[in-house]
Every structure is written in structure tokens, then in C-alpha cells.
């Protein structure tokens, strides 16, 4: 009989969690997440010990070896699953279901919806969630953009509003975000590891002044962007690589409990 134990993640679990994530997620996916950075262990150490965190993390152990992990974040009435991983040697033993079951037990009563993002090409995972009753709410295309590195920063109307906070966070964890003001507008740009910016507003890539600003920070970084539409080339772009289609799924918590 399998003797699986489920518990809240502790700082003693960090190295095993990172190893599990690296083993079970494709490299091209992981490198575009915080688990692809070199200082993820430092972030987890602080986040796990944070007393008032809205994040939840549960591990599954077999003979003191971590074979399953789930992590997510509470936001108002919803819990979003950021990551869930099961050791390939222990698949088809209902560990995934039990991870979700245990994380649900840890949630406050005000949480009534569960959500997750899943790539279309991850057929097994997508079908598994659909069988559990998750519904596809929307879908977005994920692109890796290479911009024209020769575009220079010629704009004096762009300001970083959170530079001290960004610098401290990035130096400690190797990921953060820049809060930018351009004329009367404000927007966020994620800075992930040593290779990527993350942008959610496609229109920013049509603006050569924004591209020049990003080049002044690091002209070698590629931009990860999600869009509901196909991405079209413009004069600021040298290459567009389609990463995949990403689905946003959601289910009522009570409906999910009935399926587990």
C-alpha cells in the first residue's frame, strides 16, 4: 500500500521542490517562469516563511522524498493554481487529485472558484482538468519576440516609478517588474531572469520609444507576450516565435470537490 504524506511546504523542502519542478516541466516552459531563475531558492525561503502570505504550497512525500507539489495564490474569491507537479514514477496514483484536495482543505471559506492555466500542447494535463470539470474560459497565444536591438532610447518622457523596489527585488530573486510611466499612462513590464521581459500589452511593441527604452536596459532580452490574437510583425520586431496556445480554465470549488 502506498504511504503518501501531504503537508505544507517548509524551507527544508525547497531543494527537493526545485528539483521536482526541473525534472517534470519541459525546459522551454520552465525557463520562462520564476523556476527558471537562479535565485528561486531565495524567493521560496522568504515566501514560505511569510506569515501573511496569500500563497499556498503543499507537498506530497513518499519515504521522505517529495514526489508531488502544488502551489497557488488566493485572490479575493478565487484560488489560482500556479504550478502542480508529480514525479513521473508516481503518475496514475491519484497524487494530483489528492494535492488539489489537500490545497482546497487549506482555503478560507470565502474562496469559491479554482483556476489554472494550461498549454494546449500539454494534452494529458488539459484532458485531465477537463475531466475534473474545469471549463475553458479563454485562450491566448504566447509569443517570444526579438526586437530590433538597434533602436535607441530617444524618449525623455519615460519614467521608472518603482526603481528602488525593483532593484532590491531583482538582485535578491532575479525576477521583478518595472512600473513605467509614459506620458499619462502607466504599465508594468516583468523582468525575468537574465533572458526575458514579460509584457501583457501588445500595443507597447508598436511603440519604438518603448522598444528603445527596453533596449537601453538590456538589448539582448527577448520579450514574452500573451495575446488573444495572432501577432503581426512591425518595424520594431526582428523575429516572432510562437510558443503555444495557453488556456485559462476555471471551476466552482464545490463542483471540483464532488469530482475528487
Automatic annotation (TrEMBL):
<dbReference type="InterPro" id="IPR051556">
    <property type="entry name" value="N-term/lysine_N-AcTrnsfr"/>
</dbReference>
<dbReference type="InterPro" id="IPR000182">
    <property type="entry name" value="GNAT_dom"/>
</dbReference>
<dbReference type="InterPro" id="IPR016181">
    <property type="entry name" value="Acyl_CoA_acyltransferase"/>
</dbReference>
<protein>
    <submittedName>
        <fullName>GNAT family N-acetyltransferase</fullName>
    </submittedName>
</protein>
<dbReference type="Pfam" id="PF00583">
    <property type="entry name" value="Acetyltransf_1"/>
</dbReference>
<dbReference type="GO" id="GO:0016747">
    <property type="term" value="F:acyltransferase activity, transferring groups other than amino-acyl groups"/>
</dbReference>
<keyword id="KW-0808">Transferase</keyword>
<keyword id="KW-0012">Acyltransferase</keyword>
Amino acid at each position: 500500500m502506498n504511504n503518501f504524506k501531504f503537508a505544507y511546504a517548509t524551507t527544508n523542502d525547497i531543494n527537493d521542490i526545485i528539483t521536482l519542478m526541473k525534472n517534470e516541466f519541459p525546459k522551454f516552459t520552465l525557463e520562462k517562469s520564476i523556476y527558471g531563475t537562479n535565485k528561486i531558492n531565495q524567493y521560496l525561503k522568504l515566501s514560505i516563511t511569510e506569515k501573511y502570505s496569500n500563497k499556498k504550497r503543499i507537498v506530497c512525500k513518499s519515504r521522505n522524498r517529495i514526489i508531488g507539489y502544488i502551489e497557488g495564490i488566493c485572490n479575493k474569491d478565487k484560488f489560482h493554481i500556479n504550478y502542480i507537479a508529480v514525479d513521473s514514477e508516481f503518475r496514475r496514483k491519484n497524487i494530483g487529485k489528492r494535492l488539489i484536495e489537500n490545497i482546497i482543505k487549506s482555503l478560507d471559506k470565502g474562496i469559491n472558484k479554482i483556476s489554472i492555466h494550461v498549454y494546449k500542447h500539454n494534452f494529458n494535463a488539459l484532458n485531465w482538468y477537463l475531466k475534473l470539470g474545469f471549463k475553458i474560459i479563454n485562450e491566448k497565444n504566447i509569443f517570444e519576440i526579438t526586437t530590433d536591438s538597434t533602436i535607441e532610447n530617444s524618449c525623455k518622457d519615460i519614467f521608472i516609478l518603482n526603481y528602488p523596489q525593483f532593484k532590491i527585488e531583482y538582485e535578491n530573486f532575479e525576477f521583478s517588474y518595472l512600473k513605467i510611466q509614459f506620458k499619462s499612462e502607466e504599465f508594468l513590464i516583468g523582468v525575468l531572469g537574465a533572458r526575458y521581459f514579460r509584457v501583457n500589452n501588445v500595443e507597447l511593441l508598436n511603440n519604438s520609444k518603448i522598444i528603445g527604452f527596453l533596449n537601453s536596459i538590456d538589448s539582448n532580452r527577448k520579450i514574452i507576450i500573451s495575446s488573444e490574437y495572432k501577432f503581426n510583425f512591425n518595424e520594431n520586431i526582428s523575429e516572432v516565435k510562437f510558443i503555444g496556445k495557453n488556456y485559462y480554465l476555471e471551476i466552482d470549488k464545490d463542483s471540483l470537490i464532488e469530482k475528487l
